[in-house]
Amino acid sequence: MHKTFAILLLAAALPSLAFEPLPPETMDDTRVFKVEVLQVTDIEPYRDALNGFLKSLQGSGLIDGKNLIVHKTAIDFDVENGGFWSKLGVLMRIRHEAARIVEARPDLVLTIGTPATRYARGMLTDARIPLVFTAVANPEDAGCVSLVDAGEGATGSTLYTDMTDSLQLVKDVFPNVRRIGMVHSDDENGVANVAAATTKGKPLGLEVNARLVNKNEHIAPKLKELHAGGADMFAVPLDTYYGLQRYEAAMDLGDFGIENKVPVVTLAMVRVPGAALYIGADFKQVGQLAGQQAVKILKRRTKPDVLPILRQESPTVLVDPARLAALKVSLPPPLAARKIETANGYWQIDLIK
Known about the structure:
Blueprint: H1 2-13, E1 33-40, H2 44-59, E2 68-75, H3 87-104, E3 108-112, H4 114-126, E4 131-136, E5 154-158, H5 163-173, E6 179-184, H6 188-201, E7 207-212, H7 220-228, E8 233-236, H8 248-260, E9 264-266, E10 277-280, H9 283-300, E11 310-311, E12 316-319, H10 321-326, H11 333-336, E13 339-341, E14 347-349
Parallel strand pairs: 1-2, 1-3, 3-4, 4-5, 5-11, 6-7, 6-8, 8-9, 9-10
Antiparallel strand pairs: 10-12, 12-14, 13-14
């Protein structure tokens, strides 16, 4: 009794500050965090997204090989050699890897792309492992509640940009275009991108004709069909197809556009030699946004549920002046006034001014 009373007296004598919790960022300073990365295919844009993610972590003191262990799994079906690729196969592999990750009990999982996010999140949520995603075109296609709410156990960043604004910019630069040809695979991002372009293009007087290809199928036959059908422009959707096989489809599309004097625009920040206009979110920047959310989860122990989905404030817009000149197209004065010359010879249009 006397001992208890003495403890209470001591507690009363101590400053109240002594009982305030330490800031979360000062706790576990010596802890090594484990992060699992899961994605389908290992294309350059996904590597850019991961590099952006790690850059954000490094900026907050979480350094791979020091106090951070990163294990990456890229599910691939050897599409470079025409290997097996199907949605069922992808689903099974993702579920298999998700089960392995649950057993490994990492501190956080980063999923890159829609398939990995959509099919792994249920198992990770049940295991109460925080999920952060990036490089997802439309969060709702990955099982999220909305564009800003990821739902239980998850948060991240999206490549989403307003398709109406993107297509209006296309019309501003190419006012005579009426029919846009788009070739896409069964990639969830690609399907969503083409659907949005088809719907949003109609009020702007733009007709979108699309053709579906397999991941290991050559693009040229579809381009010839669309061109014969009256396509006066080709647009590249946000689709992993264009990053596979060393960008073969992207390069063939660019060459086809040059040979037939048809402008090519890309609605994703992927390398397309021959494209005149690029509009879309930057994978590295979007990856950095995901990293910001991951830092809050790892260092401040914030629950992912309370964090919004982040996205790039304004899309990146690049113009290849040489291609515009070859097509005998000039930038409208309002856009020309906002151009900034970049190191690679492209013009970047600053939409935020």
